[in-house]
Amino acid sequence: MPVTASTAPSPGLSAYADVTASEASLRRFLHGLPGVDQVGAEARAAGLGTRSIKTTAKALALDLAITMVDLTTLEGQDTPGKVRALANKALRPDPADPTCPAVAAVCVYGDMVGVVKEVVGDKVNVAAVATAFPSGRASMEVKLADTREAVAAGADEIDMVIDRGAFLAGRYLQVYEEIVAVKEACGSAHLKVIFETGELQTYDNVRRASWLAMLAGTDFIKTSTGKVQPAATLPVTLVMLEAVRDFREATGVQIGVKPAGGIRTAKDAIKYLVMVNEVAGPDWLTPTWFRFGASTLLNELLMQRTKLATGRYSGPDYFTLD
């Protein structure tokens, strides 16, 4: 059940201090988490995906989804001009309609943070991928330097990737300590930890990675880099939403969730919003606690928004390409 304000006081994170004291204790805790019923998780996700909303509720959902978008470009061919155009779009997604809300953030490589910041100032968050994105394979010195440089350039949020090889080999303490160190390097910037769930192989691993990152102090847990398939899926996001719900119930600490990669249609976005409401609860239905990592999703949301307002469906060339 969703946690409410009337929930009894939780023990807090101090109750979990001994969990991270050693590799053995961390392994015992993570492998002692309840197993995920794969059939049940997929069936529930499929059921939630059949819900539909109409008219006024749909209009509100579309605007809410727009405010949750981390508008993203993470290509080797990114240029300052392309990134500057994307940043302007983040501020005014539909220049013809001043009532259209801005997105939550612009997500870029660290060397482009300054370009985005010049355009958006403090009106939209700037997120930077770091820690040897997307592989996560680099020394800690490189990962921390990557993080500090992005923060120094003005990043409000850091999206780090875990070392999946270390996690899959059972070196949980190594992954935990890396997250702790990166979180410290973030300073006042928020940290999102990317699992690359397509490489974690099982829902049980997704649950373990979620708890590991939350115990280490992340602000958000994120499904994917968008570079590996499958990326975000409804069942994986369901498992992560259950994890943040249970973590808040146990500790009193609320953590955000960000599915990323493969979410391209307004219909899909609304499915995720329904799932957030049903699984974690309405407290997560804000950009503070839920995001979409996407590049092409925004145009689809804008097209559906225009159709609701005008009764006419605009083609994809009506809006600027991302």
Please explain how this structure is put together.
β1, α4 (80-91) and β2 form a beta-alpha-beta unit. The longest helix is centred in the C-terminal third of the chain and has 18 residues, at 234-251. The protein has helices spanning 23-31, 38-48, 55-67, 80-91, 113-120, 140-152, 164-168, 172-186, 203-216, 234-251, 266-280, 297-310, and strands spanning 69-72, 105-109, 125-130, 157-161, 190-194, 220-222, 256-258, 292-294. It has an eight-stranded parallel beta sheet with strand order 7-6-5-4-3-2-1-8. With 322 residues, the protein is α/β, with parallel strands linked by helices. It has one domain: TIM Barrel. The termini are far apart. It is globular and about 60 Å long. The protein has twelve helices and eight strands. One of its GO terms (biological process) is deoxyribonucleotide catabolic process. One of its GO terms (molecular function) is deoxyribose-phosphate aldolase activity. It catalyses: 2-deoxy-D-ribose 5-phosphate = D-glyceraldehyde 3-phosphate + acetaldehyde. Belongs to the DeoC/FbaB aldolase family. DeoC type 2 subfamily. This is Deoxyribose-phosphate aldolase.
CATH topological fold name: TIM Barrel
- What share of residues are in beta strands? 5-15%
CATH class: Alpha Beta
**Assembly state of the chains shown:** single chain
Global Rg? 19 Å
Provide the structure class: alpha/beta
> Can you say what the CATH homologous superfamily is?
Aldolase class I
Distance between the termini: 38 Å
Instruction: Please tell me the CATH architecture by its name.
Output: Alpha-Beta Barrel
- Shape, please? globular
Q: How many strand elements?
A: 8
Kindly state the percentage of residues in helix: 40-55%
In the predicted model, the low-confidence regions spanning at least 5 consecutive residues are 1-8
The spatial strand order of the largest sheet comes to: 7-6-5-4-3-2-1-8
The tally of domains stands at 1
Number of helices: 12
Largest sheet: 8 strands, parallel
What string gives the helices and strands in order? HHHEHEHEHEHHEHEHEHEH
Mean pLDDT: 92
